[in-house]
Every structure is written in structure tokens, then in C-alpha cells.
UniProtKB/TrEMBL annotation:
UniProt-listed GO biological process terms: bacillithiol biosynthetic process
Name of the protein in its database record: N-acetyl-alpha-D-glucosaminyl L-malate synthase BshA
Organism from which the protein derives: Neolewinella litorea
InterPro entries: Glyco_trans_1 (IPR001296), Glyco_trans_4-like_N (IPR028098), Glycosyltransferase_grp1 (IPR050194), Thiol_BshA (IPR023881)
Glycosyl transferase family domain span: 187-351
GO MF annotations, alphabetized: glycosyltransferase activity
Top-rank lineage group of the source organism: Bacteria
Pfam families membership: Glyco_transf_4 (PF13439), Glycos_transf_1 (PF00534)
Chain ranges of the Glycosyltransferase subfamily 4-like N-terminal domain: 11-181
Length: 387
């Protein structure tokens, strides 16, 4: 198949999944075309069967106060479909990408081609953007007009059906992990540099938005560090970083916390960690937690959204209500009770992560694409909404 992939080219979960899925499909012989405004964060500079098409935003046109990205993207989709003979578009996020794909499909229909598109819902488009009533009509319309819809967890599927008038079936295909990349390699020399006295190492990875509650990570660490010598690695960047750096200073933790910013080789840092902290207020799945578990790092997290589908309470780590920093710290100390206890949680985390192996999930996407393509061959102009 020739597949166009539209995503945000960022370090967030949706961009990671879209890129890793595209690369995985390319390894299986499909021709993949990434179409976005910047090269995706995890897309290297050459991969067989992989193409990258940059979208020109039109920002240099003096009429516009804000560049009309959606219009430029729709035109680029039409251009790539026509010039490379794409069979299918896979767009990540309902807004704006599904709405843009609908526009592109209408243009292509007017030129005698019907190219179906699959929309994958990742969470923010439903739980945050979707909570704004101003976006609801567009999100509802874009999802219902998609030729196929997937969600990355059962919790996200339920939230979508609960909050929008959706007429189309939603297929759950979980996020996944590439075990060729995410595995616990021996990084003892690296660990020695971070924790020279054998301190426990905690880690958190996110985009430092308020929903990630990175300040809770620091409060949890403070409680733990008062009981046992520890180090905290904070990976990522975003609007809350300055606030969190200031908090670490006020709590007297600067010598024990490292703000490492965005990291491409996050698996090397996970390989030295003992516990992953994820106290988010909202998570559709928790891809960062899954990556940690693949590296045999148990997770202490909140129990919102799709996280309990990944992190099994009392088995792969622990879950708690949002904001329960005292309990989360207590749970970390349970894992640190002994080396044997930590090892038991490590083994369980890896076993659970193996359920989400990329080699299990890509065939599900391939089968779903084939189903959508078969249906589109006998479809009239566009999907009919039965609401």
C-alpha cells in the first residue's frame, strides 16, 4: 500500500506513534509518505520506502495575521496523492487533520479520485480540545466523515462516544513499543555518573504541560529523597519547566534533580532508572510509561484515562488518584523495599509491555486499512452518517 501519514511532528505521544507506525509499515514493504510542516522528531534522514513532504504554511503572504496551515495542508495532501498515487491517508488527531483530510478528499472526488482516510484519536483532541464547545461540531463532523476511526485505548473510545454524537464504529488499536529500541541495556557506567553513591534513580518524561503535573513529580521526589538517597531525571521541555526549576530550588533539591530537556535517545536514560513517575491529570494511554516498562522500569502513576490499561496496580507498579503525592511516594518506597521487590516489579513491567509489541499492533493496522479500502471501493461520494 501507498499510505500518507499526517501528524504533529513533535515529541508528544501522537507524533511518536505516527512516526514509529510509519517506519514499521515501511519495513514491511509499504510506501509511506509523511506530510507535515516539519520533519517528525523520530524520523531519521533516510529510510527505505519512506518519503517526507514539507507543508508550506504560506506565512509570507502579507494578508494573513496567522498562517492558514489547514488550507496549505489540504493542498499538499491533494498534490501528494495525485503525484505519488497514494491509496490511503492516515491522519492523527481529529482537529485539524481529519477535517483537512475531508477537504482534500472532496477536492480529489471533484477530480475523479476517491482516497479514503483513517483518523486516529490520541486524546488531546477529545479530552482537552474537545471539551471546548466551540470545537465540538468540527470534531464530530470530522470523525463521522472519516472512512475509519481508531482510538489508542478503550478509555479514549469511551470518552469519545460519551462526549460526541459519533455514528461511526471506533476500533481500538493500542499504542505500541519497538523492542529493537526500547530495552534495558547495560548502562552501569552511565548510572555511576548520575548516582555515584548508588542512589535510587527516578525518572519522568513529558512535554511539561500543566496536565502532566510535573510539580507533583518533584513533591513526590522530595518525600522519597528525605527517606532514601535518590536522584530525579526530568526529560522534556514545555511551559511548566521554569516553574518546576524554581520549585526544585525552593525545596533545596537542585543537586539531586537534573533537567535534561528534550532527548532523542530517551531509552538510554530509561535503562538506568528504577521507577518512572507519571502523575498526570489526563492520559489517553500513557506511551511514556509503556516505554519505561519495556526498559524494565516499574511505574507509579495516576489512575486516569487509559493508564490502568497499561500500568497494572500492584503488579507493574502502582496507580493512585490525581494529586495523591503522599500515596505515590509511599508506593515508590514499597518498590524500593528490597532489591528482590524491585526486581519482581521490573519483570512484571517487561511482561506487560510485551503485550504492546509493535509486531503485534502493525498487523492490526494493516488489516484495518484493507477493510477501509475494500469498503471505499463500493462507497458513493462519502460515508453516510446514520445519526
Amino acid at each position: 500500500m501507498k499510505i500518507g501519514v499526517v501528524c504533529y511532528p513533535t515529541y508528544g505521544g501522537s507524533g511518536v506513534l505516527a512516526t514509529e507506525l510509519g517506519l514499521g509499515l515501511a519495513r514491511r514493504g509499504h510506501e509511506i509518505h509523511f506530510i507535515t510542516y516539519r520533519r517528525p522528531a523520530r524520523l531519521g534522514f533516510f529510510h527505505e520506502n519512506v518519503f517526507y513532504h514539507e507543508v508550506d504554511s504560506g506565512a509570507d503572504y502579507p494578508l494573513f495575521e496567522f498562517a492558514p496551515y489547514e488550507t496549505s495542508l489540504a493542498s499538499k495532501l491533494v498534490d501528494v496523492v495525485e503525484n505519488y498515487g497514494l491509496d490511503l491517508l492516515h491522519v492523527h488527531y481529529a482537529v485539524p487533520h481529519a477535517a483537512v483530510a475531508y477537504m482534500a478528499r472532496k477536492i480529489l472526488i471533484s477530480r475523479g479520485r476517491y482516497v479514503p482516510f483513517v483518523t486516529t484519536l490520541h486524546g488531546t483532541d477529545i479530552t482537552l480540545v474537545g471539551s471546548n464547545p466551540a470545537f465540538a461540531p468540527t470534531i464530530t463532523f470530522a470523525i463521522n466523515k472519516s472512512d475509519g476511526v481508531t482510538a489508542v485505548s478503550d478509555a479514549l473510545k469511551k470518552a469519545t462516544l460519551d462526549n460526541f454524537e459519533i455514528c461511526r464504529p471506533i476500533q481500538v488499536i493500542y499504542n505500541f513499543i519497538d523492542f529493537e529500541r526500547f530495552k534495558r541495556n547495560n548502562k552501569d557506567h552511565f548510572k555511576q555518573a548520575i548516582a555515584p553513591q548508588g542512589e535510587r534513580i527516578l525518572i519522568h518524561v513529558s512535554n511539561f504541560r500543566p496536565v502532566k503535573r510535573v510539580d507533583d513529580v518533584i513533591y513526590i521526589f522530595k518525600i522519597i529523597n528525605d527517606q532514601t538517597p535518590s536522584k530525579l531525571l526530568l526529560i522534556g521541555d514545555g511551559p511548566e519547566r521554569n516553574k518546576c526549576e524554581d520549585l526544585s530550588r525552593r525545596l533545596g533539591l537542585t543537586k539531586d534533580i537534573r533537567f535534561l530537556g528534550k532527548q532523542d535517545a530517551v531509552e538510554e536514560l530509561l535503562a538506568v532508572a528504577d521507577v518512572f513517575l507519571l502523575p498526570s491529570a489526563s492520559e489517553s494511554f500513557g506511551l511514556a510509561a509503556l516505554e519505561a516498562m519495556a526498559c524494565e522500569v516499574p511505574v507509579v502513576s495516576s489512575n486516569v484515562g487509559g493508564i490502568p490499561e497499561v500500568n497494572i496496580d500492584g503488579v507493574t507498579g502502582f496507580t493512585s488518584g490525581v494529586g495523591m503525592v503522599d500515596k505515590m511516594a509511599e508506593d515508590v518506597m514499597k518498590i524500593f523495599e528490597s532489591d528482590e521487590t524491585l526486581q519482581r516489579f521490573r519483570a512484571a513491567a517487561l511482561k506487560q509491555a510485551e503485550r504492546f509489541d509493535i509486531d503485534r499492533m502493525i498487523p492490526q493496522y494493516e488489516a484495518y486499512y484493507e477493510k477501509v479500502l475494500r469498503a471505499s471501493r463500493s462507497r458513493p461520494e462519502e460515508p453516510v452518517m446514520d445519526c
